[in-house]
UniProtKB/TrEMBL annotation:
It comes from Anaerocolumna jejuensis DSM 15929. This is FAD/FMN-containing dehydrogenase. Its cofactor is FAD. Residues 481-572 are annotated as: Disordered. GO terms for molecular function: FAD binding; oxidoreductase activity. Residues 32-203 form the FAD-binding PCMH-type domain.
Amino acid sequence: MEEDFLGGLTGRIVIPSDPDYNLARQGWNHAVQNYPLIINYCQSQQDVRNAVLWSVNHSFPLRVRSGGHNYEGYSNGNRVLVIDLSEMNSITLEEEKNLLHIQGGVTNRLLYDFVSQKGYPFPGGTCPTVGVSGYASGGGWGLSCRYLGLGCDSLEEFELVDYRGTVLKANKSCNSDLFWACRGAGGGNFGVITSMTFQLPKKTRNVTLIEIDYLHVDSLIQERFLKVWQNWQATADNRMTLLARIYHTEADGPAMLVRGFFYGKPAEAKEMLEPFLLLPKAVKNIEYVTFLEAVTIIGSFYPPFEKFQAVSGFVFQDFVPSERAQLVSLIEAPAPGSVFTGLSLYALGGKVSETGTNDTAFFYRKARYILWLETIWEDDRYACYNRNWIACRYPEFNSLTTGSYVNFPYSGLYCYKKKYFGGHVRPLEEIKLKYDPDNVFTFPQGLFPSGNSPFEPVNNSQNPLKDIPWDSLVDLLEAEKQKETEKQQGSENQQEAENQQESGSQQGAENKLKPGNQQESETQQGAENQQGLGEQLGTENKLTPENQQNTRSSRNPRGFRYVTRRRKYRSF
């Protein structure tokens, strides 16, 4: 039955009974645990076409995954088909035209390694394992953006497999509306991007790497730090892009940091950074290194995975002293079990703002920076406390910011489409209807969100596939398809069932236990009462070799990305 059901899928297939399934299903944010039914590692464009057609023919929900870094797990889901592009990772260069061609599964690390050998920089992201196709289609912030633009600004063309399995080419003259939409509106909405072509900047061998740290400061210094940041933004040289952060941990107490690149010499950078360096407890490392060394050092701060939740917004204005104090207060009382709380500031402006608001789907071109509030935990017992910590602070955070960055998604956003896409919502919806009228490519925060089927993603720590044989899962899928067919016959039966439920009649209860719903009902009931089972499952997962390899050192529970390099200053 397995072979019959999977017939038509090509590439490498992983299902729940396979030994590598538990590792294959994980995204970077381990706070979100999804259990797909099929993971299809595509190795060619034809594999992708086959997967899309299989999904449509089986009325089977799909997700598209490149690097697996969607913070809310939207590139994955429960009982879905995951089209994974990570094994499509070839890169070629047309050096006479400075054109870089990549497949849809290329990561920042692979791209940086390739272009640096040829002498080029690239406006990529900071985390080495992020997929470039998802990064660029959502806009693409990085430490070169003020000088080289967002990742999407260098995009010249891409190929996309649509809901019919057809390969579409999109550029400024061919399917230009689709090309516009996929430069800022995020991946997974219109189809599967299988390749991208970027225009490379002029060759640059060296950059100045900027690292400044301030440990064990107080809230007043953090407020001064935010003021210095605002002043720097007002007159910043386009060649310099900074990331700043105020944060709190047990080891560092209240602390701050600055990271950045400057496309110039260190002496000039130090002069520009003098206000930051004059703040108390500043410890600096400003050095001239190759572009590859710079991105590798920044990338080394990222752990193999994290458990976190965060929310982002754009800032267009200066904050008055009371508002800066308000921002600092957001992180002063961490959630129970939190190992890190932080407020990060990602500089925009420069070349980002030189591109018109309507030139791409990235709406917030004129913002000064992105603000990001985050909490990280390790023990699953504290997950709900940390999620509530973000939820409780979101209204205040929302009052100080505008919109939200689609590459930093938050499931609790108010009016998420308006937040992510601003004034571009309507044209994006029209483009969505044109290129995906059946809403094949969808997820909970898609342009047309997914529904409430039991086959949609659920952010939980319970495994809905545990101990269910493959044949039973296939039967369950067929029952769900039959149930959807019955629902489409009319609303009369639905209304009758609702009336029976309200009256509490036994007949109504029996009608609700149709074959398609009985398994679902039993699964849901078990999920409500199996907290102990979930903990046991979590223990089993922790004992797997894959997870043992990914376990972070207890000396540095937050991973590298919030601390200075150990070889330079200190260790935990």
